[in-house]
Design goal:
With 292 residues, the chain is mainly α. The chain has one domain (2-207): ABC transporter involved in vitamin B12 uptake, BtuC (Orthogonal Bundle), CATH 1.10.3470. 82% of the residues lie in helices and 0% in strands. It has 13 helices and no strands. Helix 3 runs parallel beside helix 5 (92-115), helix 4 crosses helix 10 (180-221) and helix 11 (225-249) crosses helix 12. The chain starts with a helix and ends with a helix. This is Metal ABC transporter permease. Keywords: Cell membrane, Membrane, Transmembrane, Transmembrane helix, Transport. It is found in: Cell membrane.
Length: 292
C-alpha cells in the first residue's frame, strides 16, 4: 500500500483527479440546483469533436490545444441549445438529446476519418477521451487541471453572493441589478472549462457524473448552500482519491470508471443513511405512526 501511495504515477494521477473532482463537485452543485445538470451531459458529449478537430488542425496530441478545442465546441453546443429552444417549439430535453447525439456522432465520424487516414499520425490516444484514461495523464495535464480548477473556484468565490441570489431568487436578483443571463453564462462557461480539462481523466461520457453525483450527495446531507458546496467538493475529492488508488492497485481497472463507481456508492450510502435518506424517513414515519 505504501509503495502505491508513494509512487510517482499514482501521485500525479491522484493530484489531478482530486483537484478536478473537488472543483467539479462545487461548480456542478449550481447546475444541479438550477435544474441544468443535463446541459452538462450534452456539453460533455459535444466536446469530443472539438478534441478531434483540434488534433486535425495541430497535428499532435497537445494537451492545451485539445482542451481548447473541447472548450470551443462545448460553448458552441451550449449556444446551439439556446438557439434551438429560443427560436423553435422544440423543448429543452429534446434540444439536449439532439445536440448530444449530433455532436458526439460528429466526433465519432471525425475519429473514424483520422484513424483511417495515413496523413494523421498518433491518433491512438484520441479514443481515450471517450471513456478517459487517467493512468496516462502527464504533468502538463495536471498543471492544466490545476490552473482551470483554481480559476473556476476563484471566479465562483468572487461572484459567490451574486450566484447565490441568482440561484434561489432570480426575480430579486434582477431587481438589484444582477444580470441573470450573465450569471447563467458564467456558471456554464466555468462548467464547460472543467469538462474540457477533465476529459482525459474520466472521458466525455463519464465527466458529467463528477458534476452531478457530489451535488446530489451534498443536498442529501444538508440544506445550507455553503455546506452543500463543501460536502460536494469533499466527497468528490475523496471518491477521486479512492478510485485512483483502486485503479492503481488493481489490474486493468480504468481510473475514470473506478472514480465514478466510488461516487455512485457514496450516493447510494447517502440515499440510505443521510438526514434525508430512506432509512431516516422510514424511522420517522414509524415513530409518527406509533405516536398517533
Amino acid at each position: 500500500m505504501i509503495d502505491i501511495l508513494s509512487g510517482y504515477t499514482f501521485l500525479i494521477v491522484a493530484f489531478g483527479t482530486v483537484i478536478l473532482a473537488f472543483a467539479s463537485g462545487i461548480i456542478g452543485t449550481v447546475s444541479v440546483i438550477k435544474g441544468q445538470s443535463l446541459i452538462g451531459d450534452a456539453v460533455g458529449h459535444a466536446t469530443f469533436p472539438g478534441i478531434v478537430i483540434a488534433f486535425m488542425l495541430v497535428g499532435i496530441r497537445d494537451t492545451l490545444s485539445l482542451a481548447l478545442g473541447a472548450l470551443i465546441l462545448g460553448i458552441v453546443a451550449f449556444l446551439t441549445i439556446q438557439l434551438i429552444t429560443e427560436h423553435s417549439k422544440i423543448t429543452l430535453d429534446s434540444a439536449l438529446a439532439l445536440v448530444l447525439s449530433s455532436f458526439f456522432g460528429l466526433g465519432m465520424a471525425l475519429m473514424s476519418f483520422v484513424q483511417g487516414n495515413p496523413d494523421f499520425d498518433g491518433t491512438q490516444g484520441l479514443s481515450d477521451y471517450i471513456f478517459g484514461q487517467a493512468a496516462y495523464m502527464l504533468r502538463s495535464d495536471v498543471y492544466l487541471i490545476i490552473a482551470a480548477s483554481i480559476l473556476s473556484l476563484l471566479i465562483f468565490s468572487l461572484f459567490y453572493q451574486q450566484i447565490k441570489i441568482y440561484i434561489f431568487d432570480p426575480i430579486y436578483s434582477r431587481s438589484i441589478g444582477i444580470s441573470n443571463p450573465l450569471m447563467n453564462f458564467m456558471v456554464l462557461a466555468i462548467t464547460i472549462t472543467l469538462i474540457a480539462v477533465g476529459l482525459k481523466a474520466v472521458g466525455a461520457i463519464l465527466i458529467v457524473n463528477l458534476l452531478i453525483a457530489p451535488a446530489v450527495i451534498g443536498q442529501l446531507w444538508s440544506d445550507r448552500f455553503l455546506n452543500v458546496l463543501l460536502i460536494a467538493g469533499t466527497t468528490g475529492a475523496i471518491a477521486a482519491f479512492i478510485g485512483t488508488y483502486i485503479s492503481t492497485a488493481g489490474d486493468d481497472i480504468a481510473t475514470g470508471p473506478a472514480i465514478i463507481l466510488v461516487l455512485s456508492a457514496f450516493v447510494v450510502f447517502s440515499m440510505l443513511f443521510s438526514r434525508k435518506g430512506l432509512l431516516r424517513r422510514s424511522i420517522q414515519r414509524r415513530k409518527f405512526g406509533e405516536s398517533t
